[in-house]
């Protein structure tokens, strides 16, 4: 079994080899070219009856459509990374708003879920809509609530049952209907924003992702085969929200729970921040190269946090030989990412949170090829760069300004996930952010 001991749902249900652990190369080095074939990302069945043709938007599209949308999304996010204000600056600005917000709490106990959702969602809002939202804006809060609920519902046991019997269960009430309703509301929100962008569009000065897309749509409007139509816009924006907010915020949430559990590790991060950044300027991405310990801690948070244990389902794009078997074309393949993240051949103590997994004998950052939380190949996470920038800047800005405390003694802090399905969610917890 390749499952983490923390992910009890998987025990006994999944096996990706039978008998002795096979010797030789691990699965993910061999299957890489096929998983990554660029063709098909299989749908999670809960999404199949969503209010969108399942194959639109960058996450769900395949073939030429996927290529066009992926290329556009990457290039546009890069432009907004290099253009007037870089993604780094946007994250730094958000991190300062976060510090102000946390200062207001004056060290009171709080559940960090909502504030972490808000900051990661605001980064996507800034890229896509060209603006951030105030943390108490009612529209923003509603949007966040719908996303968080959906992610939790998709990860829930009832959704896993739905996965197994969706053909029959789709006719009955259940979580899939709630997910459907939530998604429809989010789409309405995006549609409304697209209309407003259309009214104020200046072809010479695109402000954000939506403007850039609308201009491309106009340019290709005489091409009946263009992929740049309204529906792909809505669903690509939806994809970015869906893929880019819960993921990063849940990782941060796991991260701070781990900081509460292991105060000696937090202490070392504090020290490195004080030495390299000090307290008079905000952390910047260039600091990463000089902060191997903090980088190792963030890598270990992602490894141990194991956000998407089963990966995202794919299909093989041609008959594929694997360990003496033929996997026929179009077979569903689950790249069980946590079988790599918890592989004892690559990590000395896989079941223990241990930043040394990513440090060499001299204390320098050590790469590990089994570290694949963003998956691998052509369909590797499109937001990896943004996610890594967010994790570093949010994590260090918080710890530059605050120490953290829990009402529960470290040895009693329970790391058992609250949900472990498509996503692995940390348990709900309370934390104090105390000004340093
Ligand atoms: C810690 C944070 C994140 C993690 C662990 C993560 C992980 C993943 C994984 C495992 C996949 C599936 C790859 C596959 O099909 O094999 C994926 C896809 C994707 N992610 Fe992320 N992600 C994160 C943050 C983000 C962010 C911030 C964005 C957007 C800015 C984003 C956008 C996407 C998109 C659009 C896809 C679909 C790519 C495609 O199908 O071509 N992700 N991510």
Explain what this protein looks like in three dimensions.
The chain is mainly alpha-helical. It has 15 helices and eight strands. The protein has helices spanning 27-35, 45-48, 63-82, 87-104, 113-128, 138-154, 157-169, 175-199, 209-219, 230-244, 246-261, 263-276, 292-305, 337-341, 384-401; strands at residues 314-315, 320-322, 325-327, 332-333, 402-405, 419-420, 424-425, 432-435. Helix 11 packs across helix 12. Residues 1-23 and 33-53 have low confidence and may be disordered. The protein binds protoporphyrin IX containing FE. Protoporphyrin IX containing FE (HEM) binds at residues 41, 58-59, 70, 239-240, 243-244, 247-248, 251, 307-308, 311-312, 373-375, 379-383, 386-387. Keywords: Endoplasmic reticulum, Heme, Iron, Membrane, Metal-binding, Microsome, Monooxygenase, Oxidoreductase. It catalyses: an organic molecule + reduced [NADPH--hemoprotein reductase] + O2 = an alcohol + oxidized [NADPH--hemoprotein reductase] + H2O + H(+).
Q: Rg from C-alpha positions?
A: 22 Å
Poorly predicted regions are 1-23, 33-53
Mean pLDDT: 82
CATH class category label: Mainly Alpha
Name of the CATH architecture: Orthogonal Bundle
Strand order within the widest beta sheet: 1-4
Query: Residue share in helices?
Result: 40-55%
In CATH, the topology is named Cytochrome p450
The dominant shape is globular
Total DSSP helices: 15
Order of helices and strands: HHHHHHHHHHHHHEEEEHHEEEE
What is the SS-derived class?
Answer: mainly alpha
Ions, cofactors and other bound molecules: protoporphyrin IX containing FE
- End-to-end separation: 44 Å
């Amino acid at each position: 079994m390749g499952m983490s001991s923390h992910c009890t749902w998987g025990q006994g249900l999944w096996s990706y080899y039978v008998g002795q652990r096979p010797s030789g190369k691990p699965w993910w080095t061999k299957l890489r070219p096929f998983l990554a074939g660029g063709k098909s990302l299989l749908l999670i069945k809960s999404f199949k009856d969503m209010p969108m043709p399942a194959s639109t938007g960058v996450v769900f599209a395949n073939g030429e459509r996927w290529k066009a949308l992926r290329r556009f999304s990457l290039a546009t996010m890069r432009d907004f990374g290099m253009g007037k204000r870089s993604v780094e600056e946007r994250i730094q600005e958000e991190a300062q708003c976060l510090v102000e917000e946390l200062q207001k709490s004056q060290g009171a106990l709080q559940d960090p879920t909502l504030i972490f959702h808000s900051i990661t969602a605001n980064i996507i809002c800034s890229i896509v809509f060209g603006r951030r939202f105030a943390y108490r804006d009612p529209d923003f809060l509603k949007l966040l609530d719908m996303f968080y609920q959906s992610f939790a519902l998709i990860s829930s046991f009832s959704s896993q049952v739905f996965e197994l019997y969706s053909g029959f269960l789709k006719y009955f009430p259940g979580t899939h209907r709630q997910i459907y309703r939530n998604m429809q509301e989010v789409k309405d929100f995006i549609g409304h924003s697209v209309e407003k962008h259309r009214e104020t569009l200046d072809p010479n000065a695109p402000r954000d992702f939506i403007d850039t897309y609308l201009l491309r749509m106009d340019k290709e409007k005489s091409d009946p085969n263009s992929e740049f139509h309204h529906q792909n816009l809505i669903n690509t924006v939806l994809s970015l929200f869906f893929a880019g907010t819960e993921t990063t915020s849940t990782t941060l949430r796991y991260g701070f729970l781990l900081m509460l559990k292991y105060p000696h590790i937090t202490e070392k991060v504090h020290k490195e921040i004080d030495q390299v950044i000090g307290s008079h300027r905000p952390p910047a991405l260039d600091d990463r190269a000089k902060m191997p310990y903090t980088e190792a801690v963030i890598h270990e948070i992602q490894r141990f946090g194991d956000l998407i244990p089963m990966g995202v389902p794919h299909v093989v794009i041609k008959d594929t030989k694997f360990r003496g078997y033929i996997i026929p074309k179009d077979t569903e393949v689950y790249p069980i990412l946590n079988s790599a993240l918890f592989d004892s051949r690559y990590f000395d103590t896989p079941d223990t949170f241990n930043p040394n997994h990513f440090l060499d004998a001299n204390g320098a950052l050590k790469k590990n090829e089994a570290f694949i939380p963003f998956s691998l190949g052509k369909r590797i996470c499109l937001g990896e760069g943004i996610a890594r920038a967010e994790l570093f800047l949010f994590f260090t800005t918080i710890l530059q300004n605050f120490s953290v405390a829990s009402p529960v003694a470290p040895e009693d802090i329970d790391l058992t996930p609250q949900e472990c399905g498509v996503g692995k969610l940390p348990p709900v917890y309370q934390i104090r952010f105390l000004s340093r």
